[in-house]
Design a protein that fits this description.
It is a single chain. The strands form two sheets. Strands 1, 2, 3, 4, 7, 8, 9, 10 and 11 form a nine-stranded parallel sheet that branches. The protein is α/β, with parallel strands linked by helices. The model has no long low-confidence stretch (mean pLDDT 96). Helix 1 (10-22) packs parallel to helix 10 and helix 5 runs parallel beside helix 6. It is globular. It contains ten helices and eleven strands. It has one domain (10-301): Luciferase-like domain (TIM Barrel). Helices cover 45% and strands 17% of the residues.
Length: 303
Amino acid sequence: MIEGQEGVTWPQWQAIAAACEEHGVASLFRSDHYLPLAGHEERPVLDAWGTICALAASTTTLRLGTLVSPATFRHPANLAKLAVTADQVSGGRVSLGLGAGWHEREHEAFGFPFASTRERMDVFAEQLEIVRGLWSSDGPLRFDGGHYRAGPVDPQPKPQAPWLIVGGSAGPRSAALAARFADEYNTVFAAPDECRRRRAAVEQAWTEAGRSDLRFSVMTGSVLGRDRTEVADRSRALGERIGDPSFAAPDGWISGTPDEAAEQLRRLADAGADRVMLQLLLHEDVSQIELIGGELAAALAER
């Protein structure tokens, strides 16, 4: 998981994707923001879906996706078509992560409406229904909501391998929306106890909707090294990047040597996480990806 708004250039995206494919890392997700979140607005930011479409054409096995795209940035028909285009280019290797949007400053800067939480959730709900409807092979979509109208229309092509992720903190409304429309629910920065609580809340919504096939995932920070010296070096570099000289990985992050990180990942799995997306904030340090695909994967396989 790469925070694309923090100055990741196109050559760096190419290097990240190449390292993932070379070292057996199956998926590459990126954030979808138009401004840096760490206060350095001079950093270059590439559009998330432009990046994914380009990577779709230049990779062969890597699954790509957003975690997550704000419903406030794009019309749902445009978003659905972008995801289908990337799906077709990649041969079915794209996931669409969708959320309500939260970063008020970038909305103001680029002229995106930023309504109340309730209204943004209403927009989010309509977007999910329209995207799913446009992807469906069950016939023409007809939709008449409070924020959007669409149809009748049955657009072609359909995605080859549609995968829709809802992002949230396990609140009742996002959990219910995931149960209706999503393939996966993703939450962020949840230590094992919190992961267990959020999984239970989301699972209750699945059960009420009569579903049992959804996946539950966690995105969390990561600082890894082959030994304690390398972990300390990366922690120091990350502290310099975020302006915190005393930085130490918070509770819930995956940090340490491969054996230590593997044990932390097992605890998240025991708490209900079906998969974990590791956030790599030192995006130019692609040797971390080699470590994940090699020694960390091997340490996990030992159990």
